[in-house]
Amino acid sequence: MRQQKWWLVGLSALMMVSCGSTQVSSGANTAQASTDAEVAAPQDGASLTAQAVSWPVLRVGSSGQSVTSLQHLLLAHGHSVGVDGQFGSQTEAAVRSFQQSRGLSADGIVGEQTWTALVITVREGSTGEAVKAVQKELGVTADGQFGPQTKSAVVSFQQSRGLTADGIVGPNTWRELVGSGTVTTSDRATLAQQILNNGRISLYTVQVSGVNDGADARSNIVDTAAGRPAKRSSYDNAPGGSVYLDTRMLRGMLSTAGVYSYRSTAIAGGSHSSNSRHYAGLAFDVDTINGVRVSSSNPYFRNFMQACRNAGADEVLGPGSAGHSTHVHCGWPR
Ligand SMILES: [Zn+2]
């Protein structure tokens, strides 16, 4: 009895998170006015109305494209550092020196305040290290010259993220570029921590069935952030045991959150069809997108499914598929 009460409390807390925030309700209002499934678009220079992806937190040991961008930006500010995508002691020293020069706490850790001070607005005609960072993030030739090809890549990126598509890379576009799960890191625990930090992702704290077995979506991500495998359920079809969540799937959870706020109901836990990709840490389920429950009349589910495919999922099911009238399933290849 006590256990049941606790999960009901957890469930109502979840409902408040996903239905009560302004971000979600503004998304739902947008849906009435427009057939386009974009969330309310944060504009560069305007006050932030919707929380998109977070600035990544980088420190010694971090690696990947966001570290490469950091290094280019440090160079752009005149701090000497090699560009290798590895956050080592030389990068740390350059970060501390930059932080000191801006009156920031010189802790050598790059979070929101340091990123905000580091990024430089660039547009067509701009040149230099900051442009190289943008070009590498977008996968275009990194010659440091912001020409028409770079502008067109920026505009498509902005469109895909629900940003004002003006081709100008200001703070919000920078945050989307360096904070996007597809480009930040391949480290599993870091990805999971980014998911926990992402205000646009809600995670169920029990199974949809009501079972409370520590294999719920949130526990899966908490365990992964701590370097542990994610638990599987052991009722009905579920095989029990645990599994390391796949990094492609974790990156997919982050990149879809770049455009949609959503609630995930299950990752490795819960009972699914036998041999489901969930049990292999390759799939996540979603029952609410931009504050609207998934059904055939949800205005967002088709584009959400496409966002999963864009992030590499090849088993994408939703309303119209058997057994998926109220949730979207995104699964990555084995
Ligand atoms: Zn599923």
Automatic annotation (TrEMBL):
Domain of life per record: Bacteria
Keyword Protein biosynthesis assigned: no
UniProt-listed InterPro entries: LD-transpeptidase_YkuD-like, Peptidoglycan-bd-like, PGBD-like_sf, PGBDSf, Zn_M74/Hedgehog-like
This protein's UniProt keywords: Plasmid, Signal
Annotated SUPFAM superfamilies: Hedgehog/DD-peptidase, PGBD-like
Pfam entry (one): PG_binding_1
Signal peptide: 1-26
Domain Peptidoglycan binding-like: 63-118, 139-177
Protein's recorded name: Peptidoglycan binding-like domain-containing protein
Gene source species: Deinococcus aetherius
